[in-house]
């Protein structure tokens, strides 16, 4: 039996990957600071920033595959580089004696091509983004994590893969950095108040082509690359495989919730500046409909969705490399959102 160590197992990537691997017969260990939320995962708890704690919890663990999908946000990219590069270093230091380690997969993202938060989109690669695009100048914790991965693979003799999703949409209990859940909460607030469902992003995002990544497709891609020779020592973009414009998708999302769609106003209206009353409003909605979560911060992240929708440049990722080497799965993007909304309703996260 193959044994996976998922670092960041309680996040949106980790939860969906754990569920897939368990269905496919893997033994799954989950390393995180919090309580495991996927049944069947053997939990390992440590602060990933604490090298000694990580080393202690990983001592003697015989794993065949490592999946790294953890990061901690800081105010500056210098801090992000130090902390998030350190997380990867701590994991591989803790696994130094793992004799059967075959492959390590690192999940990063489209900031590979757009730059870090503090200079996000100010300089960018040409679209469609391709994996062989040179790195942008300056600090980027994705680059640091990659370099740590490459050095560990050379030192310890395992194969590696890097996975670069775009905006991730999918179900994750207690993980709010999810555009799909955030938009579901926003639409519910609009419906309850009778307000229009106003696109909170830029005119450029409203009109330009873009793409997203379904968390289930990303989980499939991670398993595929880690168990196929074609995925060894390669970096891959991972998106659904279709492209869309928000001006096309937004009315469909609005129709699902029965709200009136509106495009971006002349001056864009980010969610973070408009959701000051959301905590109390959501408590009232949760009480009215007997929802499972009354804390809006556990199901929505205004800043995260604002960042994705507020960009003023086109963001399209090329999937040709994966297709050429055998990964041909595809996910319909509207279905990514509607499947998530259906499950949020079924689990009483949003009203039915």
From TrEMBL:
This is NAD-dependent epimerase/dehydratase. Pfam families: PRISE (PF22917). Residues 57-351 form the PRISE-like Rossmann-fold domain. It comes from the Bacteria. PANTHER family: 3-OXO-DELTA(4,5)-STEROID 5-BETA-REDUCTASE. It comes from Granulicella tundricola (strain ATCC BAA-1859 / DSM 23138 / MP5ACTX9). InterPro entries: NAD(P)-bd_dom_sf (IPR036291), PRISE-like_Rossmann-fold (IPR055222). SUPFAM superfamilies: NAD(P)-binding Rossmann-fold domains.
